[in-house]
Amino acid sequence: MNMKSRKKLVQTGLKLDVKPISDKGLTEEEYMAKVAELKKEAEIKKQQETLNKVAEQHFAQRRPRGPVQRPQQRRGMPRRVIPRPEPIRGLLHPEEVTRPAGFMGLLFDGVKK
User: What pLDDT, on a 0 to 100 scale, did the predictor assign at position 2?
Assistant: First the structure.
């Protein structure tokens, strides 16, 4: 039983641009030129594949480098904080007057009693 299923074609109305095919065949010269071009392309492709294999072998021989070890910068010694001595206040040194803020500051005359 040799039954082929046939699908129904649906017309879409789309047009495909196609180059026209000439009825006449290629001349002998055109044919030979085309054959030579195809042979040249095949040779170039073969050369490129050979180069790719050589490059892959070369890179396969190399050991992958790890992260680059950069020398760490030496940290300078932190500066020592030298405490400043507080000035000595004697008996004649006036006391600091702190001015109250807000409403009480208006009543303050600046003399401590």
Answer: 54
